[in-house]
Amino acid sequence: MKGIPSRTFRLFCLLLFFSSAGLADWQSIGDVTVAESAGNQVTFRNSQATVVVSVLAPDLIRVRMVRGTSFARDHSYAVVKTDWPHVSIEVAGDKDTRIIRTPELEVRAHLAPFRLAFYDRSGKLIAKDADTRGMGWDGPRVRCWKWMPEDEHYYGLGEKSTPLDKRGRSYVMWNTDPAGFDASSDPLYQAVPFFLGLRQGRAYGLFFDNTYRSSFDMGAEDRNLYSFGAEGGEMNYYFFAGPTPKGVVARFTELVGRSPLPPRWSIGYIQSRFSYYPESRVRFIASNFRERNIPCDGIFLDVDYMDHRKMFVWDKSRFPDPNRMLSDLRRQGFRVIAIVDPYVKIDPDYWVYQQGLAGNFYVQKLNGENFSGLGWPGESVFPDFASAKVRDWWGTLVKVHLDEGIAGFLTDMNEPTFITPDRRPRTFDLDAVHEADTGRTNHAEIHNVYGMLETIATRNGMLRVHPNERPLIITRATYAGGQRYAAEWSGDNWGTWDHLRLSIPMLSTMGLSGLQFSGADIGGIFPVPSPELYTRWLQSGVLTPFCWTHSGGPGNLEPWAFGNRLEEINRNSIKLRYRLLPYIYTAFWEAAETGVPIMRPLLVDFPDDRAAVEQNDEYLFGNDLLVAPATKDYDISRRVYLPRGAWYDFWTDHRYVGPIDIEAPAPMEHLPLFVRGGAIVASQQDVQFTDQAAIDPLTLDVYPEGASSRPYYEDDGISFDYEHGVYLRQTLTARQAEQGVTVEVSAREGSFTPPRRALVMKIHAQKAVPRQVTLAGEQIAVRNSVKDLQAASNGWAYDGEAGIVWAKVPDQGTVVSLDVTR
Length: 822
Known about the structure:
Strand content: 25-35%
Largest sheet: 9 strands, parallel
Structural class: alpha+beta
Distance between the termini: 58 Å
Number of strands: 52
Number of helices: 13
């Protein structure tokens, strides 16, 4: 989480990139012959190399190339789906070409020299190897060059601080602690070698599954080519034909896995800093949240809760009775999240160190000595998470804190990073030895998955203790597919307006790359942000998947830290997130089911709208909320682009019809926020923490626009029982016609039954008092005011000032059909 900037280190990364991409002596694969066609695979060979093209799905192709005649064991840390249904393919061609046809695309292989091209079934070219260079190698390095049309643009590549469009830049995949970053920093903490290409509204995707240091040149060296490659391992990539961004991301996350449903409490607000101690300070923070009526579900403890910063050992001078403290906080509605770093202090009296030593559990040098470096506790050794037995051991350590009452973990410094004596961040030697599950290997191969392997170990340990409780792990470093095990945060951002601005495309890109449960340090770790900056950042932060304030000091950064006026604004921002929890939780469920990101750039929904594609500082949060944060000091308005369709101002219900540019009000009290026409947004009553009370009433805000439908999802929020049918799923439908509006709620699916509650429907954009409101054809009682309606068990009322019809009925889980007749 903390470190020392190093321009030398960044220059070193840049030089390595150019040596691996543009300036090396690359050897092309040359001419090939077709060796065999078996099932859904076609193999091409020559005396130097072997290429296998596999059809996994009608729109998904895998390409593997290796020097020589045999491949290494087919192993992936990212890919989880291998049991693809059979796809009928056709293989045809002549002496110069082989064509592999699926129901959705064609792969054309030119044999002399070997080049691959991907077409849709209408014969339109999607992507192809460059005519001048295809796949090749330089010693252990591998690389592939592809054609780059002038009007094609690229998105994704995981955690990057650059703008959404990656065209014209080069990138490195090498998990790194940059010790602070800016809009040009690369690499960062997480490596996801996946991108989405977009041209004329049509999308495709490419995932290069190689854990060695890899690089992507998206036209920096040659504006007509992009390329990708790695310092070792295979050329092994997956091609997703699309054609929609949603389809590409859905298929990619089907391949590598999706973010599972998290515990519901983890999508509340979390308060953090470096560091909260002693115990009295933690209790003071908790009490202030409750006394000030500011919702909060979690408090984070950084390294200073530990005894001399040794993992899994409390500092009893600061926290004399952790069990009692954690129990008391839980009764107040707080869960506590503890940091764990991959540092094991070298101390003969430290029981964790001794256990690891006895089990030979640490990363080693080539000479057999344990690899060591300077970490938070001092000189430390590092668990070899590549080994299953080490991961199992780590799980026994996690159990210690779980038994005490810790509810979640943050895995930090796991790029991995340690500090040199002159205070520069560095990582393990590339020849450091790992006893991986697949056999002994070096750190060059394991580096990019080290953090993900730590999250696997932590998650498995948590599940052994609480097998029917969803774990929360937050990680700083991971690899493609790491969303299966942990949420991610964007690392050490700064408390500046620039960092607020760059966090928007950064988190949008992470979502696009499969990292669906992600967020940034609201307010930044250093320096202390201005009061206005913190308030503005919180306004947007509550509308991101992972929501926490974190600061590095020296000042305080709680929602009440900047005076009464801003405390009230900050309170309302956090309350908004809590009221929207049913909408947000449904978005998490949809992401777990489909892979479509919760927070996503406009290009995902509007790929054929150039203006939407170019928006860097707007995003969709769930299906229906368009968020346009205020990101400049003293702004009281900002330009907002609204794509095609109807959009309602969340605060005023003013209706716009896109595509349109507007100057949206941005008073200090709230950010510009818009609701898509046709939306049905679920919300709930105010609570101070997520499980303080069951939802009652469940409120549906309906924004009529033709005919529309939305899903609604609910479960117990903590267990895995939903995997066995214990959930509640309904379809919400609205139809607008000349005579009025009809809202229907389907009967519940699944066996989860919430406590008795009311169902409130608010139909927006109603300019006159309805002639009648009926439920299943029967008129329901009209109330004098919304206040009277809220006190009644059922009925309807009209708010003429807001133009909203309110209706209230019991939520019995059966079909509800409400007609509002003009």
